[in-house]
Amino acid sequence: MLSEKKKRHLFIIAASLFLVLVLFSFAYISAMSISRYDRSNRLFSGEKYFYYDGQLIIRDPGIRDNIYKREYFHMRDGRLYYEEEGVDTWFGIDVSGYQDWIRWSRVAEDGVQFAFIRLGNRGYSGGTIYKDSKFEYNYTEARHCGIPVGVYFFSQALNDEEAVEEAEYILRQLNGRVLDLPIVFDWEYVSPDARTGDITPEALTSACNAFCRRIEESGYSAMVYTNLYTAYSRYNFSEISNKYIWLAQFNDYPTFRYYFDVFQYSCTGKVHGIEGEVDLNLMFVDPKSFLKRTGSI
What is the pTM of this model? Predict the structure, then answer.
């Protein structure tokens, strides 16, 4: 019979071999998963999962892929261009009262081809709805200068009822005025302490759909603004991916796995006629084509 000392010795050896095997298996699986991507971060056909911020994301095959290719994105003089043959893009900005008084004639002269203007927001602590202090001025002056305009609302809706309340507020403020671009549901995660800090993906997704449904019933088009974290972790994205998507990722190219229509790539842009910094965007849909889908109610 083996002595207790030999038993312990054999147990340690066996445990060590098992640990080595586990570590090797983990390293092999990780290497295999990494090998599914090429160095340009384009997706391989058949990708079934990926990692975002250390979180394993099971890829939904029912959602349309990001079709844009990294090698066609180029930054020149602080502005991003996408230069693939047969693909047209448009340069635009989004603004709010934070930009103060904008000289829209100079903005137009600087090549801005569309603008999303904040109409209002809901407070993230008390939940009160506010109108943006510069909305009326920005809407009137931008359209006067021939710049296609859409509006966005910074939402902190907790449920369908609050989302519809926000949509109704927007419609009252517009009062039938023409928009060239969609009305955007801009829900953003603020902090764990905000009133929306513990909202579930089910509740947020439902609220987003309720907002968009009410906007579309009124005759306008709806769009959803999101970043990678919100899309992957806060929404059930498959349930809103059929909407127009406005992606925010401050980068020279998007790494988002799914399809989007507008790419917000900078929050530190410079445009003539605007004091300070402004958000810059690249649109992959002709802004003037939205006129067939949005306008006066």
Answer: 0.84
